[in-house]
């Protein structure tokens, strides 16, 4: 039972955050959205790019360094990590490294390198990475296929989830039909 709960928790909010961040970025950049709708870029490329610049997991869980090649520790980017020390990985940082990516904070569909740590790395790498990407690809693709005129229903900055662990929008107000003011639908809602 606990394993099922873990899968639900690990896979639910992360995927919602990926979907809403991606939709938001595309609604704010209609010229980029147009290049996807005309087939110049695939939905899978959009999702990988979104994972790079808006990683749904900000920081991972705290872990402790148990062993290093050298008892005095190892140097990681000029920081020495010694056995027993607590380590927290900033998952969002790799995809936003300005030394690797130009304009790393923006959705850039022409980005060549998609080096990111949105799903972690190594022994604890995300179990549902392929599923999460696929879900986001299908949902975002279907949203724009069914509602090609969807627009943002606010010009205000949308607050992000107040969490050290997760990155995502609290809400994403969108009007599914441009010009129709009869109802603002929430594309995704965070409870
Ligand atoms: C876009 C969606 C997702 C993102 C960004 C994401 C991200 C992550 C990250 C950063 C970790 C931690 C890696 C580490 O500790 O080093 C993780 C672990 C995990 N994820 Fe995901 N995840 C996503 C979707 C899913 C889905 C859909 C499932 C399951 C259905 C899932 C199941 C898990 C599990 C079970 C772990 C723990 C793996 C372990 O500790 O061995 N995740 N995920």
Could you walk me through the main structural features you see in this protein, from its secondary elements to its overall organization?
The structure is a single chain. The protein has helices at 2-28, 30-37, 43-53, 91-95, 129-146, and strands at residues 63-64, 74-76, 79-81, 86-87, 151-152, 171-175, 185-189. The protein is an alpha+beta fold and 191 residues long. It has a single domain (2-189), classed as Cytochrome P450 (Cytochrome p450, Orthogonal Bundle). The strands form three sheets. The protein has a three-stranded antiparallel beta sheet, with helices on one face. The protein starts with a helix and ends with a strand. The protein binds protoporphyrin IX containing FE (HEM).
Mean pLDDT: 87
Beta-strand portion reads 5-15%
With helices defined by DSSP (H or I, 4 residues minimum), what is the helix count?
A: 5
Instruction: Give the second-level CATH assignment, the architecture.
Output: Orthogonal Bundle
Number of strands: 7
Terminal-residue CA separation: 23 Å
CATH topology: Cytochrome p450
Can you identify the CATH class? Mainly Alpha
Give the oligomeric state: single chain
Order of helices and strands: HHHEEEEHHEEE
Helical proportion, percent range:
25-40%
CATH homology superfamily name: Cytochrome P450
* Attached small molecules: protoporphyrin IX containing FE
Measured on Cα atoms, how large is the radius of gyration?
A: 19 Å
The largest pleated sheet is described as: 3 strands, antiparallel
Stretches where pLDDT is under 50 for at least 5 consecutive residues are none
Judged by helices, strands and strand pairing, the structural class is alpha+beta
Q: Domain count, please report it.
A: 1
């Amino acid at each position: 039972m606990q394993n099922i709960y873990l899968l639900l928790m690990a896979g639910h909010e992360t995927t919602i955050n990926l979907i809403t961040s991606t939709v938001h970025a595309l609604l704010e950049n209609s010229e980029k959205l147009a290049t996807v709708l005309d087939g110049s870029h695939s939905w899978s490329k959009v999702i990988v790019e979104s994972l790079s610049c808006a990683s749904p997991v900000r920081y991972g869980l705290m872990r402790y360094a148990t062993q290093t090649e050298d008892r005095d520790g190892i140097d990681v980017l000029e920081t020495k990590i010694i056995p027993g020390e607590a380590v927290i990985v900033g998952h969002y940082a790799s995809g936003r490294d300005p030394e690797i990516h130009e304009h790393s904070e923006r959705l850039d569909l022409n980005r060549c390198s998609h080096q990111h740590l949105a799903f972690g790395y190594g022994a604890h790498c995300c179990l549902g990475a392929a599923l999460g990407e696929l879900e986001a690809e299908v949902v975002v693709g279907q949203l724009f296929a069914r509602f090609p005129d969807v627009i943002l229903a606010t010009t205000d900055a949308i607050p992000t989830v107040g969490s050290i662990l997760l990155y995502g929008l609290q809400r994403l107000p969108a009007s599914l039909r441009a010009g129709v003011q009869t109802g603002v639908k929430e594309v995704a809602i965070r409870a």
